[in-house]
Amino acid sequence: MTFDEKISAIWLMLQGSPLTGISLTLLAYVLAMYLYKKSNYQPVLSPFITSMVVVISVLLITGISYQDYFAGGKFIHFLLGPATVALAVPLYHQLHRIKQLFIPIIITLIASVFIGALSAIGIADLFGASVQTQISIAPKSVTTPVAMGISEQIGGIVSLSAGLAATTGVVGGIMGIKIFSLIGVKDDRFRGLAMGLTSHGLGTAVAFQESNTMGAFSGLGMALASFTTAFMLPWLLSALAII
Hints:
By secondary structure, the protein is an all-alpha fold. It has 13 helices and no strands. α2 packs across α3, α2 packs across α4 and α11 crosses α12 (about 190-210). The termini are far apart.
């Protein structure tokens, strides 16, 4: 076997190895965190955005398929579940505050679900989007896996819902803190709840960088929005004769 053939064989082995996906994910995250700290934690350089760009770029340049990459990446993906459950710890520490604000939280939650879905559908309809596109946009404000499940249930385009949910999280993570400062919202409880209700996982990550209180309320908002949207959105769309 020639030297070129050996290199080619090694490359083919690496492409299909789970270690490649794990290594690429971890290296992309390390690079993203380095750039994030160097930028003094600018939201536009959030590790979520930077690492995503790095991974996609490497896959396109090397020709590694997503399936081969995910053979290793799925092991890190599995940790998303325990990481989400771990949000209950800071949430528990804020339980006394949550009890004090129970009624305002419920009112804000219901308003957020209705306004978020109806405004998205209305704007899409205004620009001539199809009904299927409109219902695909409706669950944009919940975390991506939940948005995909809701979209599949109501007949939307699952991939479109996933992309829009991720985009919503990115935009909220980048602009949320600046908007709060602009309109004078300073209470971390309210800022966190608003961030979680609209920007789910990425918004919650940004909220925890501000304070544990803001992060805990954002985690609460993310969880409540996912549950309530999954329950109410199909009923809402049916009541409006959209589905």
